[in-house]
Every structure is written in C-alpha cells, then in structure tokens.
Amino acid sequence: MSVTLPTRNWLNRVVVALAAVAMLMPVAATVGVRPAAAASSCTGWQSTIVPPDTIRVGRTDGTVATVAFRRYVGVVVAKEWPSWIPVAALQAGTTAVKQYGWWYTLAGHHRASYVTADGKCFDVLETTTDQLYKPEQVSVTSKIWRAVDATMGLSVRKDGKFFMTGYRAGTSEVCASDVDGTKLFANSVMACAEKGWSRARIQATYYAPNLTFHWADTAPGGSGLAVAIGAPRVSLRAGTTLSQAHARLTWDQADARPDGTTYQLQRLASGSWTNVGLTQPKKSSLTLSPKVGQAHRYRVRLRKTNGQVGAWYTGERFDARLVQDKHESMGWTSGWQRVKSPAASGGIVTYAKRADTQMAFSSNARTVAVIGTRGPSRGKARVFINGRLEAVVDLYAAKTEWRVLIFSRAWAHSDPDDPCGGR
Asked: Which of 10, 70, 258, 381 has the fewest CB neighbours in a 10 Å radius?
C-alpha cells in the first residue's frame, strides 16, 4: 500500500501541514466483557463461576472507589501476602483474597451498613475490617500479577457451595498445624509450600473436608452460549488527536444478542489474558489509545450473569507505530518546508504552499492515519492510495489544532487492492 498526498490550494487557505503517519501493523489480536450488575444490592454480581469485573471499595475518606477486580486483588495481595513467599503459598493466598472480595460483590451478600452518608453503597472496606486495599502504599510485583492471573478463573467450594475464604497471619510456623477448615494461616501455609506442597494440596488441607475446585474456563469452546460473534478488529479514528482515544476496537455486527448476555473483552499482557473493563458491556466496540511500539492482542466472548459463557473469538496481534516526517520510508518532492513546534508530533511540522507538492509513503500496515495540523490558514490535501483518489482533506479550523488524525483507512487484509478487504 502506498499513500500519496499532493496538496491543493483553496481560496485563502494555502498551507498544508503534516507531521507523522500512525499505523497499526499486523503482527495477530484479543478481547473480553462483564455481566451486568443487579440493582437489588450493591454490585449485585450473580455468578459464582465468573469473577466480577469490578468491586466497590469504601475508602477511609468517606468516598467509594469502583475498582477493576483484578487490580483490587493484586493490590490487596501486595499488602497482605508478601511476594517473596513460595509461589504455591502466594497462589493459595491470592485465591483467598479474591474469593473473599468476590463473596461480598454477590447479590444478597451486601451488608446494610456499608453505605456512605450520601447513600453510596460499597462491598468492602479498605481496612482490616475486610481487606487492606492501599494502592498508594504498595507496588504490585510481576510475581504477584502472575499469581493473580494464574488463579483468576479459580473458585473453591465446600460441600459444593461457594463460601467466603478467610485468612489470618497465624502464630505457628509448622505446616498444617493450625488447620480449622475455614481459613488459611499464612505462616504455616508458607511452611507447607517450602516443603513442596502445591497450591491445590494446601487449599484442600486447610479447607478440608470436601473441597472442590472450579475453573471459569474449563471448556475451551465455552459452555452454554453457542452464539457466533466476530473477532476484534482495530481501526484509527480520523478527526481525533494523538492525545485522545484515537483507535476503535470492534468485534460484533449483530443487531441483537440473547437476553441477559454481555461481552467479555480481554487483552493479552505479559503472557496472560486480563479483563478490559467495559462501561457499556452490551456495546460491541471500545475506543482506546494503543501504546506505540508494543504488541497488542484482544479476544472477546459472550457471557451471562448465571455463569454461561461462549467461545472466545481472538483477533490478530498488531503493533502501533508512529513514523515521523523525516523517516526514510517517506518521499518528498521539492516545495516542502519544515518548522519546529513543540506542539507537533515529533516537534516538527512539514508544510507546503505550492499546489504541486507531494509526499509518498509505502507500508504493509492494515490501518494507517496521517497526522497533521488544522488551523485558520490551512489548505486542502488530496490523498491517493495505490494511485486512486481516496479523499480530499480540508485542514481548515477556526483555531489551531495539533496532532490531528486528518485521514485514516483500514483494511481486512494487507492488500488494499482486494475489493473485499476495505472497511
């Protein structure tokens, strides 16, 4: 694919200014969603199979924070279970932290007194009354995040029932010496892990008898929702700026979905899939700002509040690149001039006042956008792709706007000549 930008003067608007080209390159992609909360209690989560996406935390200053559930678990673990302990102990502790918070997000488990003076409900307090959620005091290590992600889909049952998993520090450092069937004791749990016990053995011993393990994703093809949806696809949003959410992820074109279903979107990060919070979980798109130089991948599925889930639909991985105007892949005819500007992408604006100046750029990107400046003295530019006129871009604006995506296109395939590839 090659993009050519000849300028074209228009009335008294005579300057065309360009700064960079943004691209989303195919490398392969990922997505996820949340069941809707019932209004009968606080968060009102209804599934004991799929963990909640958010939890409402009562802060000591009287406010309520709605926190992504994965982040909540990571922060509490970092405060209450040190990362230097053996992995098996850390995973057992992480599961206990998670299921404790999960328990209080469930519909019917809200404590009536957990309401602020202005009527806002919360599921847990950030103090030792519940769990120490102190994000300003801790740094969540990569080891803790690995423990969180390894056990996020796990829940435990006693006699087949989901229960509140308590834990204490304990005073004994002898493995399994203080087992009481209801909670973990961190000091003796660490001793068990140091003896080589697995997470499952620690849990089965401390929560005995009749403990069973349940995973949210035990069926690779999903469980109970045999409804096809589309894999996530990304495009760049013309008219936005680099400082805004300048990309859009879409994954489903259906007009309607079964009652009670929402989307679950996940992103691949550090080798693990993590939930992406969706403020509108029934909507099949999301705006985002992909980080330049990083690979991104998303997957999506349908799910219901009763725990039923559909199959995952995974998009291709891609990375975001920002090619500045001096890059060797760009070809400029005579007539262009450059001026420094700290407000521009890369700190430089390349501009032209002649109608016959051109810039050509070639790439195998599947999504491309041209970054430029709009303002009172700006002109028009014609955009050709593989020799075909695609758009005439008017860069006039009442006041100067910097780092604007003045034009964008996306293709389903790398070859825009494919008549079925454009979108």
From this structure: 258
